[in-house]
From TrEMBL:
Residues 6-66 form the HTH tetR-type domain. Residues 29-48 bind DNA. It comes from Crossiella cryophila. SUPFAM superfamilies: Homeodomain-like (SSF46689). This is DNA-binding transcriptional regulator YbjK. One of its GO terms (molecular function) is DNA binding. The keyword DNA-binding applies.
Length: 203
């Protein structure tokens, strides 16, 4: 097999993300990605031989795009360290960037749901979650804020729930400023964190 064109491979993975966000997991097929990417029929299957391989490619590209999006936000990820600064950056990731943000968030949710059925997707998603959590912990420690795993995980759980809520057509969040919701919840979670001096290894 001749060497693959990496630019085209990325283009196909991005097209697959668009298809996943638009049609859901059932609509993610090689033929649909070919059509959306405007490439000859069979191109996607040449790069990703099976449907499992196509799903893994989407997972890897979603992880890449997560960091690409973060890199465009001024002061991020350092702004994760305080509630008022984190609120604007996280709100932008959840609701900003016009259609691009919505597509990315929809694809991420579909991907996590599919990982329930496809164990092969879990390592990439687990690694992304660990990297994000680790970065948050580093930022918290630099600011002298709670950085125990339970608090960091609770923040992540809240943000994933908000991500889903903001995508709902009956979106309760439409009545509220997402940045304000994040600031309030983030602040409450930090305020109720365990005493750091009592945590294992803190002495």
């Amino acid at each position: 097999m001749p060497p693959q064109n990496e630019a085209r491979k990325k283009h196909l993975a991005d097209a697959a993300i668009d298809v996943l966000a638009r049609d859901g997991g059932h609509g993610l097929t090689h033929r649909t990605v070919d059509k959306h990417a405007a490439v000859p029929t069979g191109t996607t299957s040449n790069y990703f031989r099976t449907r499992d391989a196509l799903w893994v490619a989407v997972a890897n590209r979603v992880a890449e795009r997560h960091w690409e999006i973060i890199s465009t936000i001024e002061g991020f990820p350092e702004k994760m360290a305080t509630p008022n600064e984190a609120s604007e950056a996280i709100s932008l990731m959840l609701t900003g960037m016009a259609d691009e943000g919505r597509i990315f968030n929809l694809a991420m949710l579909e991907l996590n749901l599919e990982a329930i059925r496809r164990p092969g997707l879990r390592p990439t998603l687990h690694e992304l979650n660990e990297l994000v959590t680790r970065q948050m912990g580093i930022n918290h420690r630099l600011q002298g804020l709670p950085a125990d795993r339970e608090t960091l995980d609770m923040i992540g759980i809240f943000l994933r729930g908000l991500q889903l809520s903001m995508l709902m057509p009956w979106n309760l969040g439409q009545a509220y400023d997402p940045a304000r919701l994040i600031e309030r919840a983030y602040g409450a979670l930090l305020a109720t964190a365990p005493d750091q001096t009592e945590l294992p290894g803190s002495g």
